[in-house]
Write a structure and sequence with these properties.
With about 525 residues, the chain is mainly beta. Helix content is about 10%, strand content about 50%. It has 5 helices and 27 strands. The strands form 7 sheets. Strands 12, 13, 16, 17, 18, 24 and 25 form a 7-stranded antiparallel beta sheet that branches. Strands 19, 20, 21, 22 and 23 form a 5-stranded antiparallel beta sheet that branches. Strands 1-3-6-5 form a 4-stranded antiparallel beta sheet, with no helix packed on it.
Amino acid sequence: MNSRNLYRAALGLALLTNLSVASAQTTPSGNGAAGAAPATGGTTAARPAPANRPAGAGLITSGLDETGRIRLQSNKSIEINTSRPISRLNVPEPKFVDYNVLGPTRILMTGKEPGTTQLIVWDEQERSQSVDVTVVAADMGDLSGLQDQYKRLFPGTRIDVGVNQDSLVLSGHVQNLTVAEQAERVAAPYSKKIINLLEVAGGQQIMLQVRFAEVSKTATRQLGVNMGYSDGTSFGGSNIGNIAPFAVVPSQVTPDKVILGIPSGAGSGVTLFGGGVAGQTAFNYFVSALRENNLLRVLAEPNLITVSGQEASFLAGGEFPVPIPQGGGGAGNNSTITIEYREFGVKLKFTPIVLGDGRIRLKVSPEVSDLDFTTAVRFGGFVVPGLTTRKLTTVVELADGQSLAVAGLLNQNTSSAKQSTPLLGDIPVLGTLFSSVRYQRRETELVVLITPRLVEGLASSQQPTLPGEFWHHPDGWELVVGHDIGHEEVPSNVPPPTYRGAHGYTMPNAGGRPMSASAAQEPAAGQK
């Protein structure tokens, strides 16, 4: 063997010796626990290993966004490069992403459907690195551009963009509802489904002060005549309008004859009636002559408090029963009657939305209804009245403390009816005796005043005294001699509550009359 071959053999033996010593001093774990192994052929001091092998941070060198995540769209691919050859990789949720190994340091990842998962890679020394993988819908695009638009369009607001399956999620806080709606419209090109979780800063409790005022006037004029005569051998009469109709009845003196039957009593619609005898002829008459004027005024002032976006309702009135027949009843095929109740009166529903900057959007639905027995339904001994209803629904936008008047809800009804006997009813003057006329006119006007206010809860020091909390009950002498039936008597040691704002509770003065909030804050005479 020549010198060159001897040199090669010695070099190969040295390399094999170094490799065996290195394998004996390291463990296959990713953390590289310290250890020692005896050398073959004798005892040799082990070379100390590092306490902790460095983690795989920095193993992935490209394909990550600025947050250190992998973000890709469905049905699109991205190449991931590593700084060292990888030995294996794992994706916990393969339904969201697929991968192909292109080489020792190259991985091709393809988005399948929107969702989130992880990519974990190991190098040949079992050092690992895990990164989050987010797959968005194909039409969402790069969400970092959307985040930059929000920072540029809405400075001073915090709007976070996230992904939930195939939906785009907006969260954070904005100044008003207008900014929240605009942010949703800006995100519309990125996704067809947007979940808007933006919160509007500021007060979210609204008190709605409402005043209902309704005036109803009714004017009625009516004139009708029923009359009849009999001379013992003949009789006749006029029953136009059925005011007090005459009838033909058997004679009590001569049973085989009939005579004119006169009503035994005047009905409720009769205003004049009478009778008399002229020679051998007896006559009777009943007249309905009516002129009626009615006036109705309804006023209600409800105050309702609710939070932004929630509906509040109010009812000042009552409920009336409505019988409902149910088929398949008891014995004799009689149906079972159940009772349902319907509401009537002054009703209000409203839904406020705080827009920010002291502006409030309101959806208001006031309603006023009355029982109407002229349209009642009668069956089985029951009388079910109808309802006369006036209602409206509107959406308005007001500032805190502003008022809106919904007026002009005018309703006019005119009805007239005439009944007459042909030919006889057309005779001048005398034709009135053979006719019945009725004329009715009704006018109703409804006015609704609406005032929204942003309110807050009262502290314990702001609570006013309750009505009747310090009520003075009179004794016998005060009741009989002093004519005192009781009054409010607040002790002098009770401190007056403090309030914020120019509206709300008004403190009573010494005379018992309420004074304004500004007057309540003015110092008394002689005080500074």
